[in-house]
């Protein structure tokens, strides 16, 4: 059933906004994988008004910096689903996984693969990302989100601090999740699609990273606008008083949001941001 976007006349006063944080896929980025063409000028206008635009994604920092290259200087990025908060070359916050946990998770993935499941893992670090699989199908899928990628015989040998393990299964997650059951109590498991699951430290998510940025900048939730579409955006949405679910969002995200923006296909994020700027 189609969801009707909120009439902008029902928005609260957004003139005091200091941070705009937006999810990427199916929120800002459309099905074609492209950012809306208007976003560059909008980000520049927001910056001129003292408003930080903060992309929030499961991607690595380098990928986000590539995507936003025309305006990336000085931008803050929430990457790795909240595992990293970075501005330019500076890491503002990092939620590192323990080496012993990494070893256990990789053992599970390797066991699944040796048992016939078409699965692989990518380790997302502060510097870049790492995989062991070399086949084109897997590497191509991973490189959609992780541009700086190194193939290692043993990914655990990476000289880096790892903040997230992304597990991708061509066979879906049904064979994978039972093996990760024990981690549901001790870690954060985040689902960004039907075939991707991320394993991170407990209580690591986009919302915690946004709250850390708010603390650094002295900005409150009432001065924050957030956009999202899926369950891995739930904590992000809770960190901003002015939360917008795009009309194509998961029903639970729509139910939790304060407002509904037009769909991603209708460039809903752009429409709301233009509304904010028009009233400055």
Describe the structure.
- The structure is a single chain.
- By secondary structure, the protein is α/β, with parallel strands linked by helices.
- It has two domains: 8-94 and 205-278, 3-Layer(aba) Sandwich (Rossmann fold); 99-201, Hypothetical Protein, Haloacid Dehalogenase-like Hydrolase, Chain: A, domain 2 (2-Layer Sandwich), CATH 3.30.1240.
- It is 28% helix and 24% strand.
- It contains nine helices and 14 strands.
- It has helices at residues 39-48, 61-67, 99-114, 136-143, 183-186, 206-217, 234-238, 251-256, 268-278; strands at residues 19-23, 52-56, 76-79, 84-87, 90-94, 119-125, 129-131, 149-151, 162-169, 187-191, 196-201, 224-228, 242-246, 259-261.
- The strands form three sheets. It has a six-stranded mixed β-sheet, with helices on both faces. A five-stranded parallel β-sheet has the order 2-1-12-13-14, sandwiched between helices.
- Helix 1 runs parallel beside helix 9 (268-278).
- The protein is globular.
- The mean pLDDT is 95.
